[in-house]
Amino acid sequence: MSDRIFGVVGLLLAIGFALAAFAIEESFLSDAVGPKAFPLIIATVLGLSSIVIALKPDPEPEWPALPRLAEVLAAVVVMILYAELLPEIGFVIATAFAATYLTWRLGSGLIASVVTGIGTSLGIYVIFHMVLGLSLARGPLGF
Amino acid sequence: MDTLASLADGFAIALTWQNILLALLGCFLGTIMGALPGLGPSNGVAILIPLAFTLGLGATPSLILLTSVYYGAMYGGRISSILLNIPGDEPAMMTCLDGHPMARKGMAGQALSLSGIASFVGAFFATWGLIFLAPQLVKIALLFGPAEYFALFALAFMTLGGVSSTNQAKSAFAAALGLGLAMVGVDTQTGVPRFTFGEVHLYDGLDFLVAIVGLFALSEVFIFLEKRHGEADASAPVKIGRLTPPMKMLKDTAPTMARSTVLGFLAGVLPGAGASLGSFISYSLEKRLVDKDGKTFGKGDPRGVAAPEAGNNAAAGGALVPMLALGVPGSGTTAVLLAVLLALNITPGPLLFTQNPDVVWGLIAALFIANFMLLAMNIPMVGLFTRVLMVPPRILMPVVAMVSFVGIYGISGSSFDLVVMIGFGVMGWVLRKLDVPLVPIILGTLLGNSMENNLRRAITIDNGDWWTLIDSPLSIGLWLFATIGFILPLIVGRKVKSKMHERRDEEGSISD
User: Fold this and answer.
1) Domains of chain B: total
2) Which of residues 438-497 of B touch A (CB under 8 A)?
3) What is the ipTM of this complex?
């Protein structure tokens, strides 16, 4: 069933891609092929392979149970928050929080996670910023 | 003699303190990444690319660092295969079969050092093979026009699924998806924006480094979160014992190493094979050749350790041949290395050898240096690496995620790119669940634009005649080879794959 859904989604993607390709505005100065042709070839391959996937599905993959799925989703949300907050609160604080969260969710105890999280953050800061001189996000506190 | 003179120049470039230190660092990190289950050559290199890039290393030093990681990971994979019976990365899968039984007989140290030597032999001679074969391939490649290049790219995509692919539709889907992603941004020939939907960030196109790190490194983190590997912490390694193999064992396995090196190298050079297949072919042929009744193989035969290790390291060297000479990688990790070259504004291919000989020969010299370092590191220091194996994934994976973020943020300093990377991470996770290979996606985003440019150039030269694509014997040959490469797995794929994956690490691990 997963592969059938996947194939249908792929087909819709291919159709969308083809429509977007037709919508490309051609410039008056164009080569013999133009900017549309290759994307249309790709859309064809994408569509055909999607149809084959939908018609000849593989055995069902093992999807995680709902709580595990929620786990992955929560991690995604944390990572997006991390990406958005990084320039606001600075590298060290943001990374400490994100690393703590991930360590905790991967099965460490709460206190151990906080220690690992802060350790990871400071470790990366020392190695990459102080030793290697990489510029990391600077927060209001300067680190 | 020309070749040897160039090689000497290469050594002059590679033998600076900075480069030696980078090679040492790369070998060390690579061995660790190879040894840790869950991190393999392709995601190891992927995480480090943005770092090498933001540190402002030049072309040769970055390449030296990253290819040392590549070779190191090929060495490191065997450590966990032998000690824990878990392959550290895909190519080390076959090493489990005889390596772990040897360890259980109390010969872990001997298995480790023997496989270290086998790895060295494989990689050393494969590097010589690279030196002599790549310039020959360059001579052929200089005859290529745009039409032939277009066919060559098509060949790369059609064979990338590999002989072990069971579902060519999914490989084709992945390639088309990657090519489609490459189309985003301003068209280089006419200057019109494509697929940007008015988003200014997309006018430059998607940065392929963002895609690579997201697909390879972050998706691994999601897989771990889903499985919660933290609960199954690394088990205590078995006793190591004596660390040098007896002379007799070396003598017995020498012919095995020689055969496996040749086979592995060939498997590496051919498109669509790569290191996993190299070790698989070497092991199965050796088994058929020296152990006809199946008495000793699988029960701790030293030859069963030497064969796959020599094979996969030789394949790693062989896979560099098409990548450097043609600009078309034949395996996952070399696809990632291609990204390094492109990020450094170096176009691999025949012109690389004439325009940037310092890069090519410096790289090859560095491979030799890295190889000796790895041999030195992997025999006496193997105890250190076994201790690294005790680091549980629940600590390691967050570090991987955070280092990925640091690298990408270092390049662009924009939160937008980080969010795109997370998007790729999620996409990578879903696609791995669905058994869609990730390597064609990466290759598509890397090669998409030059593939299109070659197509348009070929047809423009011929005044809009599409038949020009199959006009010359060379391009007809390439198309023929591509078609065979695409159809063959449909016939034999299922059989090869089921044999190769009898003892597979985890579902959806990234093949190489």
Assistant:
1) 1
2) 451-452, 455-456, 459-460, 463-464
3) 0.91
